[in-house]
Amino acid sequence: MAQATGKRKAENGAEAQSSPPKQAKAATSKSAEVKPAAELSAPLAAGVGSESITCLHDVSYPDDYQISEKTEPLVEKKPAKEYPFNLDPFQREAIKCLEAGESVLVSAHTSAGKTVVAEYAIAMSLRDKQRVVYTSPIKALSNQKFREMTEEFSDVGLMTGDVTISPNASCLVMTTEILRSMQYRGSEVMREVAWIIFDEVHYMRDRERGVVWEESIVMAPKNARFVFLSATVPNAKEFSEWVAKVHKQPCHIVYTDYRPTPLQHYVFPMGADGLYLVVDEKSNFREDSFQKAVNAVSTTSNSSKENGKWQKAPMRGKGNGEPSDIFKIVKMIMQRQYDPVIVFSFSKRDCELQATQMEKLDLNNEDEKKLVDQIFWSAMDCLSEDDKKLPQVSKLLPWLKQGIGVHHSGLLPILKEVIEILFQEGLVKCLFATETFSIGLNMPAKTVVFTGVRKFDGDQFRWLSGGEYIQMSGRAGRRGLDDRGICILMLDEKLEPPVAKAMVKGTADPLNSAFHLGYNMLINQMRSEESDPEALLRQSFFQFQSDRALPKLEKRAKELEDERNSLVIEGEEEVKGYFGLLEQWRELKRSIRNIVFSPRFVLPFLQPGRLVRVLGPEDEEDDEEISTSMTIKGYWGVVVNFEKIPTATKDLVDEEDGRSVPEQKYMVDVLINTIAKNNDTRRKAPRPIDMESPGEPVVAAVPLSQLESLSAIRIHIIKDLRPIEAREKCKKTVREVLRRFPKGLQMLDPEDDMQVNNKEYKKAVRRLEAVEKMITDHPVASSPTLPARMKILQRKNNLTSQIRVARSEVRAASTLVFKDELKSRRRVLRRLGYATADGVVEMKGRVACEISSADEIVITELIFGGNFKDLPPEQLVALLSCFVWQEKTKNAPKLREELAGPYSQLREVARRVGKAQLDAQMSIDVEEYVTSFRPDIMEVAYAWATGAKFSEIMKMTDAFEGSLIRAFKRLEEVLQQLIVASKSIGASELQTKFEEAVTKIKRDIVFAASLYL
């Protein structure tokens, strides 16, 4: 494992770049400090204010690395690039590592100045006549970086899949996907690369695309050096150790928590009128101020949340024509000159709805309006006259003239870019944006507003994580322009202080691997001479993190075993036997209860007012005394009502006549006494207690399985038990009944009263009687030390269970991760004819390895099944749209006959592929897999391929323009891959058809050139 040694002293604090004198002075007041590696592994997000620019510098070495003991000074080279400002310590430290020819990870906040390090690496490579590759996570960012770097350096090229410019340049800007495909193809460029810059490397934790980073880092040339630029991650040391291990070279970490512009965090309670400062610029959390803000959250906001209108709250006013909260807050920001402002929302539609609330705000003067108009129409010049009339184009221009912008993935790409340019030029003063704006694009504002702190992550609505909040709030505060950045959190739900603290003072999210296997990766690995899939898995960051966890897991298992072995029980075997009999007794009681309290027998006796005993919660506290006798804790309650609840139909067999009957589920409303709310806030369900105890009587829904026994007594109850007085009266009556029967209430007899007399019941009762006799006659039954010995045994049993889990975790961590899935995927490839048993890639495999932008197996099956053979290019385009569309659309048009047929064939092929994966023991839901190929835009894609105008196809769907363009661009990407695949197997007819399909879709606004190029 890579080990941490070596530290360097960073120089004294320096002036912040382009800073006003005040900030420069503050920055020099404390020397930058270097902290040891041990501290790097601890959470590092303790705030460093503008009073000190600290940087942590450490280095990870691979095993057996010989650290040079040379003491003579290095020959000083002329700097590759001079800067008109003093560099910060972290920038100087990183540049020293580059000049020493060693890899470096720079982990710093947004706008701290990481780009300086990347620029220096490029300048140094060009000075030393070396080749350098700059990768970024998204095409838009690559385009932007290409533009910036072309202004700075002359010899720059661009490769994004959409565009290729100067592919032989010394400095190549590309997306990480392009880098990976060049590595698989054994591109000549890869042999010449001396430096690879991975911008935004924390993207590696992205669920879908993170694996691309891991693959490209592992497969990078062994003589290459790296510059990793990342947002702050607490486990930067772990990442550098992985790089050092995989590439057998030192990897430095330069980490800074320094934020050039300190942040202040405010809370704006919905419906209120003021702001509350909750975190000051020195990162102090103000508890009292936060509490005031929480108390000020209006009741109207709470009711809107309960009605499921979370995101709509900022748009709501107080009625009577009053302005909405979002209007009030933006107006206040403008009056206090806190602009420009980015207002973050978690929905594309909400961004636009909020922008419409700004009608009465005019933030630009006449000269600025003219300038906006000029920039806007010169950008739109590349569009056709029809495209210039698109609703989205005409809708945005009036907003932009007002100084209001909208930025989300549903916008036309050209509009997104023009809005970015206007924002950079200070002509958009208020921008409504989704989370994606906070990724990569270096466009800070003075103020950032959050319209809500809950987001839907694909599975559920959840609070923002500290890391997400840091990433987005990091946009606040422009270096050299603002002395502080301002974050405003709009609240319309009472937040618990710990949740809010975790957000506004939270630490960054750790960089965890999102590695997963794919067929394209697997086949490419199998056909490449220099690599094999197992080697890639062994070298993945995922495996590295698993291996690191192994010593901890082994230590934990050993500690549990030692603790278990230290527990000594006198006469252990006898106590175990007694304990086993008690377990049998409880199990038999449960079986009998399940029969007696089945709907068939119990429903006639659940009249309102009947006294019943309800079982106590099964999660009794660990320290509660363990029962050493035949007792089951139950609590008295009163039946109020019962109801049948909807359930999945599941047939049961009737024991009497063997007929199958549908299962019925019922809930019984029972009035029980519970712990008062303020004493037991942890529990979601009410916890029953004795009727004699002080508490709160509530009506709780109890499943039949939780009833323990039925009393023969019924009391009169009031129909409306909603008022607390009515429930208290009922509780008083029960107490009186219990007082009158000190020896216990008479119970309903299952056989005599309830007519339960089936075979299973009688058999269980006979067995129960036998077990009860064995318990009574057991030699330890009367021992006074039995309770103490039973408690130790229970602890021992719990430890045995924990040891079992710990040992299985150790086994899982010590074997190759994904080993079973790798076997299953290889089995699928073998059975479907993509590779031989010896791992030789067949013709089908050669096609599949060229397809990385869609489901490579299903597309290959369609090719070899002849499904594309008779389809004209327009239908081909429509069919392939099912592979690139993932969004849900409400009103998808009905498929015409010539499209319904091919789609039906696609589903059959997908079902066959799904079943093949299931047969190969892969975890897959076949029907879910089949429905993942969505036909929602087939008609739209068909119309586009037949020459329809963009404005016409937009009338056919409720999808956003930008979403549709993204789908068409990805469709073109798939077609280009299919052209290469057809060429590789000599299928010239198919190749021609795919080329024709490309010409039919590659036109007009969908493929308008980027404004950055």
From TrEMBL:
Q: Which Pfam families match?
A: DEAD (PF00270), DSHCT (PF08148), Helicase_C (PF00271), MTR4-like_stalk (PF21408), MTR4_beta-barrel (PF13234)
Where is the Helicase C-terminal domain positioned along the sequence? Answer: 357-527
Whether Transmembrane helix counts among this entry's keywords is no
**Locations of Polar residues compositional bias?**
15-31, 296-305
Entry's Gene Ontology molecular function annotations: ATP binding; helicase activity; hydrolase activity
UniProt keyword list: ATP-binding, Helicase, Hydrolase, Nucleotide-binding, Nucleus
List, for all copies, the residue spans of the domain called Helicase ATP-binding: 95-251
* GO cellular component: a single term: nucleus
The residues forming the signal peptide are none
Is Chaperone a UniProt keyword of this protein? no
Q: Which InterPro entries match?
A: Beta-barrel_MTR4, DEAD/DEAH_box_helicase_dom, Helicase_ATP-bd, Helicase_C-like, MTR4-like_stalk, P-loop_NTPase, RNA-DNA_Helicase, SKI2-like
**Entry's localization field:** Nucleus
PROSITE patterns per record: HELICASE_ATP_BIND_1, HELICASE_CTER
In this chain, the stretch annotated as Disordered covers 1-34, 296-322
Q: Which family does it belong to?
A: Belongs to the DExH box helicase family. SKI2 subfamily.
In terms of PANTHER family, this protein maps to:
ATP-DEPENDENT RNA AND DNA HELICASE, DEXH-BOX ATP-DEPENDENT RNA HELICASE DEXH9
Tell me the protein's name: Uncharacterized protein
